[in-house]
Specification:
The chain has 55 residues and is mainly alpha-helical. It is built from one helix and no strands. The N and C termini lie far apart (84 Å).
Length: 55
């Protein structure tokens, strides 16, 4: 019977590991999206406004 108890603990540990990994992946994705948005904003701020007098 002890073997089944060990399997139950391992299954719970695996579920916890999967949950931690899923959360870490979500956090990483949010961080990368935020970095990307910031980079786009900085790039747009660094670009000079378009020359509208050439029309």
């Amino acid at each position: 019977m002890a073997h089944f108890a060990y399997a139950a603990v391992m299954a719970e540990t695996q579920d916890e590991k999967k949950a931690r990994l899923a959360q870490a992946l979500r956090d990483n994705l949010r961080r990368r999206k935020a970095q990307s948005r910031d980079a786009v904003r900085e790039e747009a701020a660094a670009m000079p406004p378009p020359d509208r007098s050439r029309r």
